[in-house]
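WARN retry 2 of 3 for item q-0093 after timeout on previous attempt; input resubmitted unchanged.
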Amino acid sequence: MTVRRLTLMVDDPASDHVAAAVHRPPRATQGRGHRSVLLAPGAGGDLDGDGLTALASTLAARGCTVVRANLPYRQAGRRAPRADRSVPGYLAVLAAAQDALGQRDAPWIVGGKSYGGRVATLAVAQGLSAAGVLLYGYPLHPPGSPDKLRVDHWPHLFAPALFLQGDRDPFCDLQLLDEHRHKLPRRATVHVVEGGDHSLRVTRAASPTGAASSEAATLNGLGDVLEDWLRRLD
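OK item q-0093 returned
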């Protein structure tokens, strides 16, 4: 696997460029169920977060070409706007990534961490054609406000989805996720990390085995889960 830094030029009022990194798969896996993936970070994070980097590397090891990139507001040093206002920026980053890699022939998998994943779902619900949606710590509701669900757009999310969720995530009541996943018109797969928080970090006290796990270690260990989901996209 190789990782290369690049700058993507984007058409967005917040910034005309974003920092990005592309993970290319090992030569032995290239061409075998190949997919292209765009991952965006959470609201307060950037492309170099440990979890996002680990997720990109794990996908690349399974044959995907993965771009992780800042959204324009983050590149400009601003606070995250309301998620729907980041959709144009996400689409601009996707278009720039497709041009940079010369990969516009087939729909990409889109997604990201928390806010970044939510923005991707909104983009698909607004008409973006996607091979799948990969959601790492989807923010189903604000912490402490399970009545404020972020699912109104789900009936228009016409792409298979994979949720990677921790059972200690204050942003996602898993019972509510299970109750509302039927609103998604395509297959939705939920993988629950026991003891995992919003970043899938597992403390020793929360771990069912008594062993702690960093977010990167957790995501590095989800290769088989990701490969199974990728295979079922074909």
